[in-house]
Design a protein that fits this description.
- The complex is a heterodimer.
- Chain A contains no helices and eleven strands.
- By secondary structure, chain A is mostly beta strands.
- In chain A, the strands form two sheets. In chain A, strands 2, 4, 5, 9, 10 and 11 form a six-stranded mixed β-sheet that branches. Chain A has a five-stranded antiparallel β-sheet with strand order 1-3-8-7-6, with no helix packed on it.
- Chain B is an all-beta fold.
- Helix content of chain B is about 0%, strand content about 55%.
- In chain B, the strands form two sheets. In chain B, strands 2, 4, 5, 6, 9, 10 and 11 form a seven-stranded mixed β-sheet that branches.
- In chain B, strand 7 and strand 8 form a beta hairpin.
- The chains are: A mainly beta, B mainly beta.
Chain lengths: ~110, ~120
């Protein structure tokens, strides 16, 4: 059965304290892994797409990496405005769906 | 421009009402999606339209009826909903569903409350 698991479920960081969020997947035929940021009551905001193991993408304080089993979202020197829920999603071979993990709620304390 | 526009932003409806949610994109995307999201849960797929044809219907109750009038518009018609249908309804679009550039862009959602 295809599965996407995110950890931790919630993470509290002090401002400036770097950390990583994990997205582990067990799927048959990955056609893309996507990271989104979601603020409360809003739609998910697209961050990154990763297609193959070894690929890395960066944007400001965020860096996403991909292996054959998992993806990491590294947050360097986070600021309070980085507080949000971070979702990973996968697109599978032969499927039109984006299947989401359960998300990590990040809180950055000033 | 990566904007997907949803209207209305908020909707309160009774269980006997009929209402519609609307979604529009002008990015030339050929796949459009409806997702439902409950509080503190990830989005769950309801429908996918690819090239204006319904390609996925995830066993959604018939009280939800999607419509894709053209490649830029997507509607979700609501009828005889239940209180448990209260949720954030998200529309998304992507260039396609295969190959590269398949990331989906989401609208801001419609917060639906069924009373």
């Amino acid at each position: 059965e295809d599965q996407v698991t995110q950890s931790p479920e919630a993470l509290r960081l002090q401002e400036g304290e770097s950390s990583s969020l994990n997205c582990s997947y067990t799927v048959s035929g990955l056609r893309g892994l996507f990271w989104y940021r979601q603020d409360p009551g809003k739609g998910p905001e697209f961050l990154f797409t990763l297609y193959s193991a070894g690929e890395e993408k960066e944007k400001e304080r965020l860096k996403a990496t991909l292996t054959k089993k998992e993806s990491f979202l590294h947050i360097t020197a986070p600021k309070p405005e980085d507080s949000a829920t971070y979702l990973c999603a996968v697109r599978l071979s032969g499927a039109n769906n984006l299947f989401f993990g359960t998300g990590t709620r990040l809180t950055v304390i000033p | 421009d990566t904007e997907v526009t949803q209207t209305p932003k908020h909707l309160v409806m009774g269980m006997t009402n009929k209402k519609s949610l609307k979604c529009e994109q002008h990015m030339g995307h050929r796949a459009m999606y409806w997702y439902k999201q409950k509080a503190k849960k990830p989005p769950e797929l309801m429908f996918v339209y690819s090239y204006e044809k319904l390609s996925i219907n995830e066993s959604v109750p018939s009280r939800f009826s999607p419509e894709c009038p053209n490649s830029s518009l997507l509607n979700l018609h609501l009828h005889a909903l239940q209180p448990e249908d209260s949720a954030l309804y998200l529309c998304a679009s992507s260039l396609g569903t295969g190959g590269l550039n398949t990331e989906a862009f989401f609208g801001q959602g419609t917060r639906l409350t069924v009373v």
